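#lab-general

N.A. 3:47 PM
ok so I finally got the sequence cleaned up, no stray characters, all 203 residues accounted for. can someone with queue access submit it? mine expired

B.Y. 3:52 PM
send it over

N.A. 3:53 PM
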Amino acid sequence: GNGVTCEIIHIPETVKHISFGYNKHLKEIFLPNSMTEMGNACFTYCENLKTVHLPENLETIGWRTFKDCRSIEEILLPPTLQKIDFGCFMNCSSLVKITIPIGVKKLGISFFENCSNLREITIENKDIEICPTTFQGCKSLSKIDNFLIENGLLYNLDKTELYTYLGDNKDKIVKPKIEIITTPISPHVMVYWQQFKERYITN
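B.Y. 4:20 PM
back already:
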């Protein structure tokens, strides 16, 4: 837990649950293949954690597991994953690229929020569900499988649905870009449309 000061840790196969939140010393960790589930916020604010070796049989990652792990640049998610809860990689500002396994069906609220250096996401499940804030603040994002990015706006591939804006709350869509927003809004995003306009569209 919080008292651990080691920089590199190997977790034994007998361990089923871990909690290293707010550990400023941890830089690399090896998790046992016996572990199939990672609990909520178990690495939150581990700001110097750079390398995580995940279990080969991992099925579930809890909410905000890697929130504010600002040193992680890349992480390999095992193909056995079925669920990754909301806010998992929020504020992981060094994360550059990632692959989401085919078994994952939803990327929830604030999933990649403020991952400002995230450039490429490979999504193996073409029917994956996203939320309005899934990619909020991902300013560097240039490629997401099965989605289209234009002028900081995220669409489906045939541009019949607009999902969200990839900037953050400080950014604004200036007047010349208003004409872009003629695309029907995705049904599960519709409730956020008024808030979207108030935040991002300037006069």
